[in-house]
Amino acid sequence: xxxxxxxxxxxxxxxxAQIIKQGLxxxxxxxxxxxxxxxxxxxxxxxxxMTYPERAAYVLSKFLTDYTYxxxxxxxxxxxxxxxxxxxxxxxxxxxxxxxSLELWHGPTAAFKDMALQIMPRLLSRALVKTGEIxxxxxxxxxxxxxxxxxxxxxxxxxRIKIIVFYPVDGVSQVQKLQMATQTxxxxxxxxxxxxxxxxxxxxxxxxxxxxxKAKLLENKYVLSSANSINWGRLAPQIVYxxxxxxxxxxxxxxxxxxxxxxxxxxxxxxxxxAAYIAKNMGLPLNKLICASNSNNVLTExxxxxxxxxxxxxxxxxxxxxxxxxxxxxxxxxxxxxDAKTTASYMASLNKDGKYTVSNDIKDKISExxxxxxxxxxxxATTLKKFYxxxxxxxxxxxxxxxxxxxxxxxxxxxxxxxxxxxTASPYKFAADVYKSITGSVAPEGTKALDALSELTGTVITIxxxxxxxxxxxxTDIIEASDxxxxxxxxx
Length: 492
Description:
Elements: E1 3-5, H1 16-22, E2 31-33, H2 41-48, H3 52-63, H4 69-79, E3 92-94, E4 99-103, H5 114-117, H6 120-130, E5 136-142, H7 146-155, E6 161-168, H8 174-181, E7 188-194, H9 197-208, H10 211-219, E8 222-226, H11 232-251, E9 261-266, H12 271-282, E10 286-293, H13 298-305, E11 307-309, H14 330-337, H15 340-353, E12 355-357, H16 360-367, E13 370-374, H17 377-391, H18 397-413, E14 419-423, H19 431-439, H20 448-457, E15 478-480, H21 484-491
Parallel strand pairs: 4-14, 5-6, 5-8, 6-7, 7-15, 9-10, 9-14, 10-13
Antiparallel strand pairs: 1-2, 3-4, 11-12
Helix pairs in contact: 1-6, 2-11, 3-4, 3-11, 11-12, 17-18, 17-19, 19-20
């Protein structure tokens, strides 16, 4: 399997190990596979009898063809072990007659990013060997909260890899901030920036595109890599859990093979829902992909009108991991719906004017698969309380956005199909907002909100979030976004 940049008309080929090491293409584009491998009925039936690590190795082997099957099996068994994922990875839980929650947050940092970032360090370590790389990989991460901690935890103390994480100082929850600030490891660094997530992500992309910076890093024996979903090595493992969820629906006797199901995903950077798109285009029987947004509803508008316009007010919401106006992975969808020349043109317009409008053909093609809805803050809180009160299901704020949008889709379409909702974080990661949504009262400050939510609901605090307040705070730096490169140099 070869890979191309979304912006390269010449289709220069790369192996999977090369693109996992490199992260972002030199022309600023994102790497995509030359073709999408098929997943057949026979294969789905076989996968139904496998464990999650076995399913992951099988699916990844279709994309990462310069890794041996034994390497992938070994890495998946280590990444998705019961030690890392208490109770198993990606369980599918029935919430209502037609809504099923795909819980992706049972890993070491209590967020769905663990599903990719527990295996990705293993893939990168092998990629350094496979490509003959003699330098240290320096990973740059922009985070709206969850990716940062998951990447730090995945890459800590791994030989020949260093990682620096940038997050918006006022754009993450108190729990997320504490998780990052107390991170252990001798190869990690965390910086808050003045600005929002888009400022952090733009800063990271600028460094990746700065040839002088890359030359200086190389002089000091460092090569850049990324742990964000712009890196295919982050996105590929996410394809697995949609295929796995379909297998679980079959195993739970909820569907028979061939019945199509809907998928609703709380969406910020468009990586998680794009993984579902890949699974669908491999042949997995999925119907509509519902893109769930919060008040930063740039994607909802794009799916309705064909115009992507980030020139709008930025809202800080109770679902901060979705507080994004530049959804990087949408570029991959544009590419699969058009070609490299068209994609490069739209991305140039986005960079220059902050917006672009796709052709009617592209819009129609995207609309065949995607529907977009968004939830206001009030709707998010109301839905969270409703699902807890009516169905005894405790969701975090991001999952509540998706549950609200799933219900809107069902009310409008009433197609009778099962609905998989991606549940992306433990409710305890956003305990204060979850508590307030249920009670209408302000939660105790800081980590006391976790205890208050536990007492209120009779549920136990998610294991990785216990004892946070007792951990040593190591990282307190707050910098201007314009100083990000300087921080990278200091970290060498």
